[in-house]
Design goal:
Blueprint: H1 2-25, H2 36-46, H3 58-77, H4 82-105
Length: 106
C-alpha cells in the first residue's frame, strides 16, 4: 500500500509540476525541459544520494540542488553555450559518482 501511494503521489506531483511549467512558459513544448533530468540527477548525487543504494536525505539533496543551481547560474553569467554547460554538469556528476563509489568501497 505504501509503495502504490508513493507512485500515486509521484504521478500527481509530476502532473502538477508539468502544469506549473506549462503555465510559466505559456506553451507546451515536449523538448523544452531537455536538460532538467541531468540537473535533477546531478543534484541528488551531489547531495549525497547514492546511486548504488537508497541513502540520502532531503536536506543533503537540497544542498545538491543549490550547488547545481549555482553552477548553472555561474555558467550562464559567463555566457557559456548550452552544450558546454551540459558537459560541465555531466563532468561534475561523474566526479560525484566516482567519489561515491570510492566512499562506499570502504
Amino acid at each position: 500500500p505504501y509503495r502504490i501511494a508513493a507512485f500515486v503521489m509521484m504521478g500527481l506531483l509530476c502532473g502538477l509540476g508539468a502544469i506549473m511549467f506549462t503555465s510559466r512558459l505559456s506553451l507546451a513544448d515536449p523538448n523544452e525541459a531537455v536538460g532538467l533530468a541531468l540537473a535533477a540527477i546531478a543534484a541528488a548525487v551531489i547531495g549525497g544520494t547514492s546511486l548504488l543504494g537508497g541513502r540520502g536525505s532531503v536536506v543533503q539533496t537540497f544542498l545538491g540542488v543549490l550547488v547545481i543551481a549555482l553552477l548553472q547560474t555561474g555558467l550562464a553569467t559567463l555566457g557559456t553555450p548550452e552544450p558546454l554547460k551540459r558537459m560541465i554538469t555531466g563532468g561534475v556528476l561523474v566526479l560525484a559518482v566516482v567519489i561515491d563509489v570510492f566512499k562506499n568501497r570502504r
